[in-house]
Design brief:
Blueprint (H helix, E strand, L loop, with lengths): L9 E3 H7 L28 H9 L5 E2 L5 E2 L3 E2 L6 E2 L5 E5 L3 H6 L7 H8 L8 E5 H7 L15 H14 L6 H11 L6 E3 L5
Antiparallel strand pairs: 1-8, 2-3, 4-5, 6-7
Length: 197
């Protein structure tokens, strides 16, 4: 997280965007396996994927043996679909792993990449969405993909910028221009940043 950010400070999206460095993207050497994800960080038998599903369910599932999820209901942020089958949901890294690599994670240690890929310390880094919407988004940044439902635009862009600031990732020029245009339409959006990861 940039040194200029005080943990616990509430900031507008414009203020947060101003903290981000602009740099070209570089995908050289990227492999998804370099980000170890869906670990069981607290040893309770539920990996990150299932922890997110449990946390974000609007109707909680029953948790069975081996952290199997029975029942439950979820609302997919990107497309508004209501889903009752956990297998139809993906857990989206709001800032995709490939995008993180392009934006500075290529220089990180394996441990830091693992912590990024399983970041449940904030509610906006990982979200449960329909598999179709997650695959539509893929590893695009907001210059190339935005949620189709305009009601989801400000929450998505808020999460995107907050993740980039939290993990001290850069933005490329097209991404910055796209974000700059969007944040002016989200004047009431604020993010309170936690301690650096």
């Amino acid at each position: 997280m940039p040194a200029a950010v005080e943990p616990g400070a509430e900031m507008t999206l414009g203020q947060l965007l101003a903290l981000l460095t602009t740099a070209p993207e570089d995908r050289t050497g990227y492999d998804r396996s370099l980000f170890r994800h869906w670990i069981d960080a607290d040893g309770d038998g539920c990996n990150t994927r299932r922890e997110v599903l449990i946390t974000e369910a609007v109707v909680p599932p029953t948790v069975g043996g081996g952290c199997s999820l029975i029942g439950g209901r979820w609302v997919s942020l990107y497309d508004g679909l209501i889903l009752t089958d956990a297998s139809r949901l993906d857990i989206d890294h709001v800032v995709a792993l490939g995008e993180a690599w392009d934006s500075g994670a290529s220089a990180w240690s394996a441990d830091r990449r693992m912590r990024f890929a399983n970041d449940m310390d904030v509610p906006w880094a990982l979200i449960a969405v329909s598999a179709a919407s997650n695959r539509s988004k893929s590893d695009e940044d907001p210059a190339d993909w935005l949620p189709p439902d305009s009601d989801d635009l400000c929450p998505f862009v808020s999460a995107w910028i907050a993740v980039k600031v939290r993990w001290d990732l850069s933005v490329d020029q097209r991404e910055r221009e796209a974000l700059s245009g969007i944040v002016t339409t989200c004047p009431s959006s604020r993010i309170t940043l936690p301690l650096a990861p």
